[in-house]
Amino acid sequence: MNNTQGIPRIGLLPYSRADGSQYFPQDYLDAIEMVGAEMVPVMHDTPLDTLYPLVISMDAMIFSGGCDIDPVHYGCAREPGCGRIDPRRDQTELALFDLVLGRNIPVLGICRGMQLLNVALGGTLKQDISGHRVSETSDDPIWHDVRLEAGSRLAALAGGPVARVNSYHHQVLDRVADGLVVTARSADGEIEAVEMPGERFFVGVQWHPEKSLKDDAFSANIFKALRAAMR
Q1: Which amino acids are annotated catalytic?
Q2: Four-residue CA torsion sign, 50, 53, 54, 55
Q3: Which band of pLDDT confidence, cut at 50, 70 and 90, is reported for residue 133?
Q4: Which DSSP helix (H) or strand (E) runs through 223?
Q5: Is 103 exposed, middle or buried (0-12, 13-18, 19+ CB in 10 A)?
Q6: Is residue 124 pLDDT above 90, yes or no?
Q7: What CA–CA distance (Å, rounded) separates 62 from 64?
Q8: Residue range 89-115, pLDDT digits in tens
Q9: What was the pLDDT predicted at 150?
């Protein structure tokens, strides 16, 4: 572990507000604390030349949710349904991803974070879909089932082929990047999770397990599995 107390350290990016201020939702902090780890904050204005020492200090990385990724990063024009973007976060997060990938530490992408994994590896996104969130401003989830691919990490963590998950998003993966496999879909066929095959823990989920830690064992199991994968 990367500190003198032997406590594992998990990197985390904050969310951003329209005024540019940054904050860490408490649910993420609760999930990290639950598995006995501490957070390494990676602020959106972190100088790019200081990212490497931060990554060296991490035992795992969570790419968190938040606003939309600028479509320029996956070679598309911005469509009317695309929401607020944060160019500062995009730049920092994409540079961070390359370092995290090279270090081969466990990775969990949540909502925007799953989309970031796909975009960083060369995939694309659908910029606006319906039926997967109450509204842009609502904190209330839509709940629905996802079907999990047999033999996937997530199916093992859920204990079966179907899991009920929350939904807050309006963007999903379109073209899946090389190196990723789809391991969950919703009833309407949209991609709900991806994994990178192999021994490394590299998982992206479209839902927010940090928001449902107290609702089901599956949500907690995802973070426990991330912790177990740390060296």
Answers
A1: 111, 208, 210
A2: positive
A3: low
A4: helix 217-228
A5: middle
A6: yes
A7: 6
A8: 999 999 999 999 999 999 999 999 999
A9: 97
Number of Cβ atoms within 10 Å of the Cβ of 111: 25
**What residue type is assigned to position 145 of the chain?**
D
* CA 221/CA 198 separation, integer angstroms: 19
The first and second tokens of residue 221, run together, are 């199991």
Please say whether the beta carbons of 125 and 171 come within 8 A: yes
Q: Point out which residues pair with 139 in neighbouring strands.
A: none
Burial class (CB in 10 A: 0-12, 13-18, 19+), 151: exposed
Which residue matches tokens 């994409």? 94
- Note the pTM of the prediction, 2 decimals: 0.95
The token pair at 48 is 């790019």
d(CA 220, CA 223): 5
Residue 231 binned pLDDT confidence (cut-offs 50, 70, 90): confident
Among residues 103, 21, 10, 19, the alpha carbon closest in space to that of 62 is found at 10
Residue pair 171/68 in contact by the 8 Å Cβ criterion: yes
Q: In the 8-state DSSP scheme, what is residue 76?
A: -
For the chain, how far is it from start to end, CA to CA, in angstroms?
Answer: 7
Q: Which two tokens stand for residue 29?
A: 């902090």
Helix, strand or coil for residue 121?
Answer: coil
